[in-house]
Amino acid sequence: MVSLSGIGPSTLARCVELAADLDRRSVPLSLLLAPRRAVEGEALDWVRLRLRAGDALVQHGSDLRADPFSPRRRAEFAALPAHEAGLRLIAARAAFARLGLATDLFAPPGWAVSAGALVALARHRFALCADAAGVRDLRTGGVLPGRVRRVGGDHWRYLLGVRRALRRGALVRVAVDAADLDRLGPRQAVLDAVDLALAHAAEPTTYRLLLAVTARSTHRAAAP
């Protein structure tokens, strides 16, 4: 599964190029957007086009500001109590609604989420939260393990990690920031990881499609 963040006017051309490369491989995208920094103009039109074509919209925090409750200025939802997290979720949904967008999928900035934020997400009827270690089905409590793999650093070490996950039959989550796509290395790492996964008969997916997988896993675990 490939997720893309940092979508905006200055990165749109690179986002379009990556999406075209993935389309040729029949691999959909999960689009991570911060509602209170949401895209406008041509970038918003592109997001809507991608969603109609089958990509998934994932709420990426609220506005990506550091958490004021954390003395170390950690990522926005990394240490928030439930009440504050809930207020941000309400404001974020309203910002999405003004753009004609809506989703019940959530990925916190930095892939870090507090226990309080998880409570708030469930209260506000979010169905899924993707953190650094796996994907949580907030409706059932099921968790699908699979750490997020951020593009960057040593190319071959990155691919080696992907290969190991594939050999275990694990979920492979490739995360890319659009700001990194102006460099050949990160973009090629995404495509190489995708090609490697497809060569191992991995099934392309999105966070939306993973909801069905986590629900089935929870049902099997609960069966006598």
From TrEMBL:
InterPro entries: DUF2334 (IPR018763). It comes from Saccharothrix coeruleofusca. It holds the Pfam family DUF2334. This is DUF2334 domain-containing protein. It comes from the Bacteria.
